[in-house]
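Case study.
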Amino acid sequence: MSLGIPQTVAIIMDGNGRWAKAKGLPRTAGHKQGANNVRDIALACNELGIKKLILYAFSTENWKRPEDEVGFLCKLPGIFFNMFIKELMEKNIRVTFAGELNRFPQDTQDVINKAVGMTEKNTGLELCLAINYGSRRELLLGIQKYADQVAKGERTNDITEEEVANYLMVPEDIDLMIRTSGEQRISNYLLWQIAYAELIFTPVAWPDFDQKELNRCIQEYQNRDRRFGGLTS
Ligand code: IPE
Ligand code: IPE
Ligand code: MG
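After joint prediction, the assembly is written out as follows.
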């Protein structure tokens, strides 16, 4: 029996730079094209009835890149939401984010917070952008918060696996994790949440990852046998 549509999908949107280089364009052109593709894939996921799409847009390690590229990437979410917020509203898509926004320029933070506020009551797809996100940082902040609460006597030291989610930026388990552009690694993304995710690595670069390739990945997911440590019935 094949699986239904995955409820939570996480994508590592990789390969923008190589896509641009192959076309003789600057890396930033790849990021721009990649941002346009976020719109297309979010709309497609909304149509498919996926509940939450989490897109890795900027990692805590991406600050290591040259200053001009980092500067461009920091402005991109702001540009994206200014361009597409109206359409996201029309399609009933809710915007959220994971990561520490405070390192981004104030105007970018303002646009993101505005998008989150405006779409708060929408009931379609939850489009979550992981920006300045790193899973180890997420876990560290959660551990610190928990330790603080225990130290202050606000709770006892008896946390369960289910409760760990309350201390994370992304509380859901991931059903399907896709990484584009051929790299086969996780790069500090959702380490707790992908415990039993199905992983798909596609050679297609993110700017070329279209609805057809998304559908192919979903089909591949649906043909997987998710056993969660048990046996197939
Ligand atoms: C993904 O594309 C976008 C970010 C990491 C911000 P890359 O910029 O990593 O592109 P490649 O991997 O160098 O081709
Ligand atoms: C992962 O891609 C981060 C994002 C897609 C935002 P990277 O290109 O930064 O990852 P590595 O360096 O190849 O592992
Ligand atoms: Mg990369």
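Observations recorded in class. The chain has one domain: 8-134+174-221. The first strand starts at residue 8 and ends at 12. We will return to this complex in the next lecture.
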